[in-house]
Design a protein that fits this description.
By secondary structure, this protein is an alpha/beta fold. It folds into 2 domains: 6-125 and 307-323, Nucleotidyltransferase, domain 5; 133-302, ATPase, nucleotide binding domain (Nucleotidyltransferase, domain 5). It has 11 helices and 12 strands. The strands form 3 sheets. It has a 5-stranded mixed beta sheet with strand order 3-2-1-4-7, with helices on both faces. The chain has a 5-stranded mixed beta sheet with strand order 10-9-8-11-12, sandwiched between helices. Strands 5-6 form a two-stranded antiparallel ribbon. Strand 9 (145-151) and strand 10 form a beta hairpin. The longest helix is centred in the last third of the chain and has 25 residues, at 236-260. The two termini are 28 Å apart.
């Protein structure tokens, strides 16, 4: 019996590179994960990525019909050229690197590269909670805030790969400074590191904040999860920061609903482990800022990511580009 076709897929992050073999049905047949900088910095990062891809290929039966390689990478990406752009904060070694052609040459297979959240959005449409959706937004809120925008069944990349960079949507004029050089970006109010920064900033007026105790009394050790736990325990300082984050998220959702009129918005990433604190308040604020009919048409939920979601998304990316399989 002929073996089913598969895709080699990788999710390249600032901390880890995850790669695996994924079937066209979304089943992950083999999966491995290594530190992004396992071989060092500089050009060693590229070698590490290629080595991981070659490794998972070697774990699959010889002669298996491998269609190609899909890769999700952070930052803006010129998907047509397979080139990572200049605005990649987490892995500066990939700046302006033609990752797709490099991988294609080394593995002897066609390769597609795109922004990691675009890939995740395609994965949700092909294999996950967004199946059947034609107008869909995925927001990933974790170390940063990224977006995947799908309109009329097609991923929106924009003119130079910045489509979906909703984390740098300005939500507060003259607000918090952002690494991008602007102020008031959505990311600066919602990402895990930025929430921890806000928690530290209010300590002079809230020295007994519960989240400081949860961090062992060390301000530098405060993390978003400490803030969320303190809010659940009724800490006023923590609750104030969380309330503002939920309102800011709601404003962003209202803007996206008015501008794009999606039928589905999924929220994922590490920060959404606090969906119990953020989701309903954000929905309430979004309802206030969005057109009533547009809000009514948009389901807002939480994406159920797991360790394999990134590589499923990268596989869906390849299938979408090389087989016209965008849902």
């Amino acid at each position: 019996m002929r073996q089913a076709e598969v895709v080699i897929a990788a999710d390249v992050g600032g901390t880890t590179v995850s790669a695996g073999i994924v079937g066209t049905d979304g089943v992950v047949h083999t999966h491995r994960q290594v530190p992004t900088y396992a071989r060092g910095r500089g050009s060693a990062v590229l070698e590490n990525i290629v080595e991981v891809l070659e490794g998972v290929r070697g774990e699959f039966p010889p002669g298996a019909p491998v269609l190609g390689v899909g890769i999700g990478a952070p930052g803006n990406v010129d998907a047509a050229a397979g080139r990572v752009g200049e605005d990649i904060q987490n892995i500066p070694e990939l700046k302006d690197v033609a990752l797709g052609p490099l991988v294609a040459d080394r593995l002897g297979l066609p390769a597609v590269v795109d922004n990691d959240v675009n890939a995740l959005a395609l994965g949700e449409m092909a294999f996950g909670a967004a199946r059947g959706a034609r107008n869909f937004i995925l927001l990933c809120i974790g170390t940063g805030v990224g977006g995947g925008l799908v309109l009329n069944g097609r991923i929106v990349r924009g003119a130079s790969g910045y489509g979906g960079e909703v984390g740098h949507m300005a939500v507060e004029p003259d607000g918090r400074p952002c690494f991008c050089g602007s102020r008031g970006c959505l990311k600066t109010y919602l990402s895990g590191p930025d929430l921890a920064d806000q928690a530290r900033e209010v300590l002079p007026t809230a020295p007994a904040a519960r989240y400081l105790a949860l961090a062992g009394g060390d301000p530098a050790a405060i993390r978003a999860e400490h803030l969320f736990q303190a809010a659940r325990e009724g800490d006023a300082a923590a609750q104030g920061i969380v309330d503002r984050a939920a309102r800011i998220l709601g404003i962003a959702l209202g803007n996206l609903i008015n501008g794009l009129n999606p039928e589905l918005i999924l929220l994922g990433g590490g920060v959404m482990a606090a969906a119990d604190l953020l989701l309903e308040p954000a929905r309430t604020w979004a309802r206030r800022y969005a057109f009533a009919s547009a809000f009514a048409a948009a389901r807002i939920g939480v994406a159920a990511f797991d360790k394999q979601s990134g590589i499923k998304g990268a596989a869906a990316l390849f299938l979408a580009e090389h087989r016209g399989a965008q849902p």
